[in-house]
Amino acid sequence: MIEVIPLGTGSALPSKERHYSATVVEHNKSLFLFDCGEGTQFQFLHAGLRPTRIEAIFITHLHGDHYFGLPGLLSTLTLLGHEKRLTVVGPQGLQAFLDSIPSRMKAHETSLDVNLIEIDPEAEYTVAYDSPNCQITSRPISHSVQTAGYRFQEKDRPGNLNVAYAKKLGIYDYTDYRALKEGIAVTNAQGIRIEPKEVVGPTHRGASFAYVTDTMPCEGGLKLAEQADLLYHEATFTEEHQQRAVQTRHSTAKEAATIAKEAQTKHLLIGHFSGRYKDTSILVEEARQVFKNTDAAEELKRYAIMDTVAPSEHLKP
Amino acid sequence: MIEVIPLGTGSALPSKERHYSATVVEHNKSLFLFDCGEGTQFQFLHAGLRPTRIEAIFITHLHGDHYFGLPGLLSTLTLLGHEKRLTVVGPQGLQAFLDSIPSRMKAHETSLDVNLIEIDPEAEYTVAYDSPNCQITSRPISHSVQTAGYRFQEKDRPGNLNVAYAKKLGIYDYTDYRALKEGIAVTNAQGIRIEPKEVVGPTHRGASFAYVTDTMPCEGGLKLAEQADLLYHEATFTEEHQQRAVQTRHSTAKEAATIAKEAQTKHLLIGHFSGRYKDTSILVEEARQVFKNTDAAEELKRYAIMDTVAPSEHLKP
């Protein structure tokens, strides 16, 4: 299970209604931050999230509304004496920018262990982060500067073991239980071979979330969104301003919905709204004409995505 | 007359209660910004101030809570197509930092005309900004890195001309009126010399404001505050944490008040409060024991300082 918490759904100009781009994925005890616009660390406070829980930060592109909160957030982690290794992923130029920050950041270089990864703009596909529990991949998307979309994929976990039934089949040992969950057959005291599928339920399919902003509708975004449980896709403009979307290399709400539909995404959250829309209902309306399960991303709201757990009852004899 | 509007009264760690350092001086139609911590541009929105009215920005030092809002503010001015020349003053290293910001700031270099001035840390006194209406001077203050305190001085204006009395003395010409206001004697049709002091009231003394943060109590701060109408002085700690103030090169509320008293300041606003004080009343209390006219700076409140205008009635014969 993961929870997705949008922290900022605005675009380049500041507004009273919305904050700059930033979205958190909470998984187990770790936080994964996608984009870090100015003020992101304040939104952490308002969301009740401790920044020391951040495992990795993924920056889409070097327009200020997506990364100007990074110096402040890293400084705060330094001040808090944070010593855990922190992965920061982003486009080319991010390392040079962080290296150029005077004073406080120099202190951080000694105390805060930043593992900075710059994404090769030519690579079709990059594994940006990998752990036993999840993998974050990146693909180039189509904006005015090098921009990366991301997909958070919780790894699949073995199904539930029906211990009562396993015991009936003569399996009592925890080593055997573990082996069965890992897909390895075991043999009971009577020499009968027990196959994993006899006692282990279906695999838990990990939750998936795609973060696609800023971009025109594009192949990279489509692939990242493929059958995702949740897609956050930018929808800066309504159809009325479609020309403006093309000029600035952004998407309309309808285009975001078309990506969600083609990718067979389960749920679409639109965001990165132009400040001209105080009310997002027209954007949602236009998107829903193409893809019904669309909502406007709400800042600080938690969107829970359960991994798919099948009941193991059917395994009972 | 000037108005001083504190936008942020917190210190290095983010808090829900306060924002990062920034204070605006409004004078005529221009705004002068002192410090620009992360989120300053949002505070402009909440204060109902248009950032395009900013004439000059003064950064005290390169700790993030005092300048990490600068990239975002400059980017926003660029996006708004702002073309007025903007003076940015700060310590050494500021130019290199601004030059290192990718993409959006590159655009700004062509459209936004930034006149960047780095303060010589060896100079006892620097005129940081000068116009016919005001002058901003800077002095080094005592923190862990190069830090500049500032004083905003509205220029004195000539007193009011008693036109009715000037006419009685035989002066009818506007050129003569202007000369008298500029301190030049004129001669009437009868050949009698009229001295300015006969018809012009006392000079309007310009309003003054000193901005002194972050610092231990020091000579520079004292000189900047000399007979100022309003002094904003940092008071990060209470007396209980005086040792911590020394270690981190900050001031206690009592020390800030001592500066205000010695400098014969009229009104003291304390700020830059450590996050440990949710309630500032203890800080104010400690300061008032030394300097009665002390208040905790309130974010978004307008502190008006009138220039001293003497009535010209006494000039009437």
Structure description:
The structure is a homodimer of 317-residue chains. The first copy, chain A, has 317 residues and is α/β, with parallel strands linked by helices. Chain A folds into 2 domains: 2-155 and 203-309, Metallo-beta-lactamase, Chain A; 163-199, no CATH class. Chain A contains 12 helices and 16 strands. The first copy, chain A, has helices at residues 40-47, 64-67, 70-79, 94-99, 104-111, 163-168, 174-181, 196-199, 219-225, 242-248, 253-262, 281-288, and strands at residues 2-8, 22-27, 30-34, 54-58, 86-91, 114-119, 126-130, 134-141, 147-154, 186-187, 193-194, 208-212, 230-234, 268-271, 294-296, 303-305. In chain A, the strands form 3 sheets. Chain A has a 7-stranded mixed beta sheet. Chain A has a 7-stranded mixed beta sheet with strand order 7-8-9-12-13-14-15. A two-stranded antiparallel ribbon of chain A has the order 10-11. In chain A, β14, α12 and β15 (294-296) form a beta-alpha-beta unit. In chain A, α3 (70-79) packs across α5 (104-111) and α11 runs parallel beside α12 (281-288). The two termini of chain A are 29 Å apart. Chains A and B meet through α1, α3 and α4 of A and α1, α3 and α4 of B.
Can you summarize this structure?
The structure is a homodimer of 317-residue chains. The longest helix of chain A has 10 residues, at 70-79.
What structural keywords apply?
12 helices, Metallo-beta-lactamase, Chain A, disordered C terminus, homodimer
